Structures are given as structure tokens and as C-alpha cells.
Amino acid sequence: MHEQTPDTPPAPPAPEAPALFGWEFATDPYPAYAWLREHSPVHRATLPSGVEAWLVTRYADARQALADQRLSKNPAHHAEPAHAKGKTGIPGERKAELMTHLLNIDPPDHTRLRRLVSKAFTPRRVAEFTPRVQELTDHLIDRIVEKAGAGEKGEADLIHEFAFPLPIYAICEMLGVPREDQDDFRDWAGMMIRHGGGPRGGVARSVKRMRTYLGELIHRKRDDLGNDLISDLIRASDHGDHLTEAEATAMAFILLFAGFETTVNLIGNGLHSLFMNPGQRTLLQDSLAAGETGLLETGIEELLRYDGPVELATWRFATRPLTLGGQDIAAGDPVLVVLAAADRDPARFADPDALDLSRSDNQHLGYGHGIHYCLGAPLARLEGQTALATLLKRLPDLELAVPPTDLRWRGGLIMRGLRTLPVRFTVPN
Ligand code: HEM
Question: Where is this region: Disordered (predicted)?
Fold first, then answer.
């Protein structure tokens, strides 16, 4: 121990990294992200699984990492053999057929599959789907409203009764899953969302049932093509190249998987942000009442930036030694880009911790960046805009039914969202 003399100022205490991934972190990760951005922007962390990974939290580094071809999506590049077998956090991913999905592969395989799927999953197909998303949304709100009489106070859990069923029914319809089978998907997806990080048995069974069902549906549709996304996946061809049946199955599965919990949480987190920012909510409600859509469009992007569903982009692995944000990264090291932290970086966004639905300079990373940029962004935007606008128009006095501090958050590694969202409203006459 050294004695302090009056001339030597005490050394500032070494800043200690905040606790990551615990319960408090899931409730509000943003102070921890601010700390990381400032003190340790490319930070070596031990994940709850015990795997060590680099967390990238500054906007400029994050954007660079997302597009950096030296960072592979293929788990075979992970230095840790157990992980290299495919334990990347997506249940059932070890199944060989599902390993070939877009988020696990690099060019040239990725280029080929993405080009084929892009021929089926087009912005035009999404646009044609607009009236159906509106119908599904209205139907779910009808059911919520019917539980209470006209003029009465009604209560609902908007996660279970609204945000959860909407995306699963929407993607099932788009894929061409017959109506009578859609509730099975709802149950399987419910199992996955409830127990994503928990007991593996039920989740593995649900993934297996989904995959088997999709495989059989694709097989049946080959001889009876219709006007749906699965038929388009089968039809899609590029210079004579087609998806194999196994590839089409993996593709349908990843569309479901990537497009489901994300959208649940876009709606849930988005509503939560509006409840917590009543001034912004009023502006949005007024503009919707005036028949305008501009604030809704910029608003959905801002809600994604402010508290988006995807905390961390999916895994990347260094294929060779590289330097990122001044930090040396060894070949084989996993790199996790923290989208939620990058999107609050004051070096990129003015007043980043404020929700500003009219924000126009808003190139957020909520949908990723580069060749893996979210394929489903047009569908997510359609669902998010329809869901929020319809709810606020039909139930204008919607309010939280519990104190905000009672809300419980589900923090997986990749996704963050509310477990429940209890609300009260007056039933319109
Ligand atoms: C990729 C976010 C909805 C399908 C991604 C990525 C992000 C993302 C961040 C890139 C991951 C990475 O680079 O590691 C979101 C958000 C959504 C949403 C925030 C909702 C608000 C959807 C929907 C679908 C979808 C509705 C489809 C129905 C996909 C697919 C990929 C992807 C297939 C992989 C693309 C590729 O690797 O080439 N998404 N997504 N997503 N998303 Fe989304």
C-alpha cells in the first residue's frame, strides 16, 4: 500500500463494467449501454451461456461490423468447438436442414439464397397484403372489445391478445398455411416465445412440429401451386436455379422465426414507449385523427430506434484477426453488434434518449445493415403501422392498467420485450 501525499491526487477508481444480462438489465439496459459506449466500446463479455464474445456498442463501429466481410455468419468459424456445432441461440438450429438459413451463411451461398427468396418475398406481395393485415388487426381488437359492453371500461393484455397473435397469423396467411392449421402455429410459436431460453424439451418439440408441418405443406403445394409465398418460393428461379425442398422448408421456417417475435416486440415495446411519452403519443393520435400518415411512418422508425425489439444482431465470427474500434479481435472470436446501444449513440443521433416521432435523420440499425439487412422490413413496417394506428384510433383512451415499474421484461440474448402489457380503455359506443 502506498501512502497518499498531498501532492499526488488520488487516482480515479477504475470504472467497473455494469452488470449485463440480469433482470435489472432486461428492465432498462440503456444506462449499461451508455457506459459501454463511453468506457469500453468493444467489450469482452461473458454471456449467460458462458460463451465469451465482443460487444460492439458505438454506431460507427456497429455499422462497420455489420457490413464487414471478415466477420462470418457461419458458426463453424467459432473458435469454441461446442458453439461451432451450431449452438447459436436459435432453438433447433443444430438440425442440419435449418442450418442453411440466411442468417447462418455467407456469400456465395447467401447471395444465391437471398436472391431466390427476394423473388418471392417482394415489396409488391407485402403491399397486396395490406387489406388483410388491417382485417386481422380489426378482428383482434373486436375480440378485445367484445369482452366488455359498450361504454364500459375494458381490460386486456395487449401482448397475449394482440401483439402476439397478429404477426403469427399474418405470416401464416402470407405463407399459405390453411386457416384451420394456424392455431397450431400459434401454440408452437407461443411455446417458443415463452420458453425461448428455458426448458428445451417443449421448444425442441414445437420447432420439430413446425418444421415437419412446413416440409409436408411444401411437398403438397409442389403439385398445387397457389397465390401464396410458399408457392412463390417453389416457383422462384434464377437462371434456372431453384430452391430445393429442404431449402424452401428452411426458408419458410426462418421467415416465421425471424418475423414473429421481432414484430410482437415492435408492437409491445412501441406501445410501451408511447405510454411513457404521453406528449408524443398525443401528437401521433392527433395526426391520425386528422387523417395524416407522415408521423406514423417516421414514428415507427423512431420507435425501432428508441426501443427496438432486436437488442443484438445475430452472431458474427472473426474469420481472421482484425481491429474494430481500436480493439484487436482474434480469429474465431464471436462478435455481437448491440443494435440497441448503437441506436442511442449521441455521436450519431441528436438527443438520442428522447423519443421524437418526427425524427427525420434516422438511419437506425434496428433492421441491421449490409447483406443481411432485414428481408422482412416492409412487412414489419406494415404490421407495426397498422397495429399502432388502429389501436390508437379505435381505443383512444388506452392506458396502462399497472404502474410501469410492475411491468416485467423478457430479455433473451437477442430479443427484448414485455411479458405482458395490461391496459384499460373505454369501449366505444
Ligand atoms: C434479418 C430485425 C421483422 C425476416 C434481420 C436483421 C435484423 C432484423 C436486425 C439482421 C440480423 C443480422 O444482421 O444479424 C427485424 C425487426 C423486425 C423484423 C426489428 C420487426 C420489427 C421481420 C419479418 C420478417 C423478417 C416480419 C419476415 C417475415 C428476416 C430475415 C432476415 C432478417 C429472413 C435474414 C436476412 C439475411 O440474412 O439475409 N431482421 N426483423 N424480419 N429478418 Fe428481420
Answer: 72-91
